[in-house]
# Entry
Amino acid sequence: MKLCMIGTGYVGLVSGTCFADIGNQVICVDKDKKKIEKLNSGISPIYEPGLDELIKKNHVGKRLFFTTNLKRAISKSELIFICVGTPNKKKTNTVDLSYVFKAAKEIGKSTKNKKIIITKSTVPVGTGDVIEKLLKKMKKRNFEIISNPEFLREGEAIRDFRFPDRVVIGSNKKKHFKTLKKLYQPLINKGANFFSTSRRGAELIKYASNAFLATKITFINEIANLCEKTNINVEDISIGMGLDKRIGSRFLRAGPAYGGSCFPKDTKAIITTADKFKTNLSVIKSVIKSNENRSKILLDRINRILNRKIKNKIITFLGVTFKAN
# Structure
């Protein structure tokens, strides 16, 4: 199939390269000329194990292309993926969707032919509805908007793409499930679950998943606080709990607090969405508060170890990356 990936950030570049590697023709678009020049020279702007080799292999094989010409890329593609950033606004914790809407408008301006637009960016419930209205205002009625959230972990992204637990597709028209199933068939053949739902359902699955994983981390961190007071090794508790298949061992490792590019952003964003629909997500609110407290507790512990004498100390950080690789 012929695909266009708008945005060559983490999601767009990894997904686009992997789609090319399973036999599709992919055009990755970015307005950053220097980034596109580097990619055309085989230099990746991000580090991900195995990504450089895949980019070179598929670029040479004429399945993967990089350009700044959005209009041309859209005209040559059947499916258009929006893979731009959706950061939180600092003051309100609402999601900044300006990049998504800008991409949607550019798509509307670039073609009159029927296209399927797929949001891979993490977006709040109802974003697909807004994109649809936006395009209708531009008198563009021949577009279909689908949600297909990504579940790639940094450092494991290529493996996660090739062997996903599930592929989630959200559409309000059942006929489009067949098209997306065809795209993902090589992964389904390897055991991936293909899950179809409404567009809003797919948008919420991403946030709900990240909020639940953040809850698991926060839970074991609170148990770690208790272990400190009761002279118990929290790792024993994690292993003992994780052996229960209903609970599972993943995301039950105690640490300073959850962080990274997704959990802090997505837990706050789902709360904002819930407030908009007048729903109290009290558990997730508690998770956010507990996560903030966890950092304070560990800082206080360091203070006590150093007898409150923090100034002029030599500090070593053991492990400075977000994750391995």
In short: The longest helix spans residues 199-230.
